[in-house]
Amino acid sequence: MTELAWVGGTPPAALHRPVLVTAFTGWFDAAGAATAAVRHLAGADEGLCVPVASIDPETFFDFTRRRPTVALDPEGRRVVSWPRNEFAVRSFGDAAAHDLVVLTGEEPHLRWSTFADLVVDVAQETGSEMVVTAGAAIAEVPHTRPPQVVGSTTSAELARRLGLGRPTYEGVTGMIGVLHERLERAELPAISLRVGVPHYLATVPHPLATVALLQHLEHVLGVPTGHGELAEDVDEWRRHHDEAVALDPDAAAYVARLEGMYDEQVVAEVPSPDELAAELEAFLRDHRPD
Prior knowledge:
Layout: E1 4-6, E2 19-25, H1 33-42, E3 50-55, E4 69-72, E5 78-81, E6 86-90, E7 100-106, H2 112-125, E8 130-139, E9 149-152, H3 156-162, H4 175-185, E10 190-198, H5 207-221, H6 231-246, H7 249-264, H8 273-287
Parallel strand pairs: 2-7, 2-8, 8-10
Antiparallel strand pairs: 1-3, 3-6, 4-5, 6-7, 9-10
């Protein structure tokens, strides 16, 4: 019995040039910024996506580390909620270049290799043209400056055509790193987008970083992300932290020092959004079977 279960027993049919987009809670999701971006993109809270598959958590999680929760439903029955890794489809019709297959996942504790293979299986079975992962990493940056989003890919051709970097990191990794290695083996094009989060705010929500990821996803994917809907959250977040820093002279001096470092450094950014989107579409067009 496979741990991957399709809703209705079979993969969805007739998707429009789908792209699989994912982020995982855990090591590569500082401040929850990446999973917040993908969850917003999926539109699950507004009922804009359709569930299509799920991965059974039983053999992938240590439930003494990530305990399930229990609650009462409206009829008073006890319901246990387990770690969730569910795939959903969001379609934009003629308003976008692609349908999205979205996984807002929880990084498992066990059997990472098998788990990554299941995600690749979903990408292949849905006919996804490429995979885009979102991540958030702790960085020495101030909260007063626009978060920088950096893109990379293991594909030499994608790197050349889109002006992206190729991964050079060596060391311990997370599920995103394992997944990209499996995607490369499967010869599925993949892009990693990651945003920097101030290290002194890594444990609280960071809507500004979430918006930065959504803006780049919008240009890369050619789909509306609705990032403007988070403007009120961003304003409240910025006001709260500006006031807290202003009350602490040491914190204000530290943030000023980070601002100086930020302004002086040369940041490797994703190319201009319009250029990136056009070149990506050309790449996908060149590699479509039809």
